[in-house]
Amino acid sequence: MTDTTARMSGDLPGRPPVVDLRTWEAARAELLVREKAHTREGDAIAAARRRLPMVEFDGAVEVVGADGPVPFLDLFQGRDELVVYKHMWYDGAPHQGQCEGCTTTAWHLQDAAYLHARGVSFAVLTTGPWDEVAAYVAFMGYTQPWYSVRDVDGPAGGDMGFLTGFLRDGDRVFLTYSTTGRGNERVNAAMGLLDMTPYGRGEAWEDNPEGWPEGRDACWSWRSDADGNPTWGPTGRPVPQWTRPGATPVETLGRHGHHH
Fold first, then answer.
1. CA-to-CA distance for 91 and 133, rounded, in angstroms?
2. Other Cβ atoms closer than 10 A to 237
3. For residues 131 and 65, what is the distance between their CA atoms, to the nearest angstrom?
4. Which of 4, 25, 55, 106 lies deepest, with the highest CB count within 10 Å?
């Protein structure tokens, strides 16, 4: 396309080229071929995921929830399957000092009705002491069950920041799957929607055309100040926290020596 053609077509700087509907439909159809191949490969990976072996562990190991210590088995709520998100925790930090990435994942699943319909329970686990966790859950307005797995070893506890799957057979409990990093994006619907937009996530690693808005570091949008400016500074909070009653700027994240 020549510069003259671009000007005549009404192109706008830093935006996709402007074309007629038929031309757009042809380009869309071409991309759809790749999208369908991506979907089929995802289905094949999911089929392989279902064929992973599993690891048995003690379902009687105790975790602490709203009703005090309970066996891990209780997290299944009588269902055969369980998915948990393992939320990182900074001991003693105020609410706004907790992990913005974990907040992103936990915030996206406020209602597990569709999981329950398929016989799957959901819970959030974290290593924080229960009194801190309970106050945080109340402030955030989370509706799914949370449990402290402080000092719990093995598949029930372990490293945080993971999505992990479990299967129950009577009183026997098994670890079936675990993922972290971008694997956690399965929960984060906003990420998928942003991927459908012309400007994407606005992150520096994305492959964008020349003239697009300059991307920032990954997860820049997960923490902001009261005016909505992305910041990890002392007045920053995980973005959803600003929607909570009583969320005001606080002058310390409460984590000595911790910085990004």
1. 10
2. 26
3. 10
4. 106
